[in-house]
Amino acid sequence: MKKITLLLLLLPVIVLANTTWGKTGHRVTGEIAEAHLTGKAKRALNDLLDGHSLAFVSTFADDIKADRAFSKYSAWHYVNYPLGTNYRDAEKSEYGDIVMAIEECTAKIRDKKNNREDRVFYLKMLIHLIGDLHQPMHASRAEDKGGNDIQVQWFGEGSNLHRVWDKNLIESYGMTYTELANELVEVSRTERKQIQAGTIYDWVDESHQICAKLYDSVEIGEKLGYRYSYDYNELLFEQLQKGGLRLAKVLNDLFA
Ligand code: ADE
Ligand code: ZN
Ligand code: ZN
Question: Is residue 116 pLDDT above 90, yes or no?
Fold first, then answer.
């Protein structure tokens, strides 16, 4: 194959590679949410998702990314605003962002006048986006594209701060999504209520504050490995847990 043809074929892969919690992160979030649904939400979801699990549909929004017809949704996976500020006060992107997207999805799903196909589409997007909202580098800053431009090494291989949080860290456990979901300790009812309190606006600012700390804790070109994995194990698991419990909350409210 000619070099140029090969390059053209690979271009979407190169450009789209670093844009989301990897599949594992999304599936863990879906799996945790599944365990915290009300009976009513379970029935509604079972109907709309044709019996598929939340874990199964959680990666849909990434699977459609390579398709140009869906390019208008690429800005939906994240939001960037200056560190140390709040989402509410931030200048909004004309292309939309993860907060606007979540609001649009819930409105579309809630309105039963919308046809089933559309409601299912927005439901799958929503399940994915609540996951992304808890990947701290998805509530980030614009200068370095949410850490995509901060090159680091991961166990001796080239990576970047964004990718470390999308997939390197979670993949370093070598565990399946069900194994990881089982590994997260069940929280008490009081803790769960605390985690599920607040709004999308609180949750995005919380991720944004964590993101600021992650920027502070690496140097450009730093060699990351076991030490980083160990130091951030608790935070990673906490984010996955929160994502799952809050996804359950959003869905329980939506189908109450
Ligand atoms: N592209 C630009 N900023 C981004 C972010 N925060 N997350 C993912 N992709 C991005
Ligand atoms: Zn995503
Ligand atoms: Zn990402």
Answer: yes
Number of structural domains in the chain: 1
Alpha-carbon gap, residue 182 to 179, rounded angstroms: 5
Chain mean pLDDT for the chain:
93
Q: 141-157: per-residue pLDDT in tens?
A: 999 999 999 999 999 99
Tell me the residue range of the domain where 147 lies.
2-254
Cα R_g (the chain), whole angstroms: 18
What residue owns the CA closest to ligand 1's atom 8? 19
pTM for the full predicted model: 0.92
Q: Rounded to the nearest 10 degrees, what angle do helices 226-254 and 200-216 cross at?
A: 170
Pocket perturbation via mutation, ligand 1, pick of 14, 20, 62, 80 by most ligand atoms within 8 A of CB:
80
Beta strand residue intervals within 91-181, DSSP E: 139-140, 151-154, 157-160
- The residue to mutate among 62, 98, 137, having the most atoms of ligand 1 within 8 angstroms of its beta carbon, is 137
Residue 182 corresponds to which amino acid?
Answer: N
What CATH number corresponds to the domain at position 148? 1.10.575.10
Measured in angstroms, how far is the CA atom of residue 21 from the centroid of ligand 2? Answer: 6
Nearest bound ligand to CA 143?
Answer: 1
Contact call for residues 20 and 127 (beta carbons, < 8 A): no
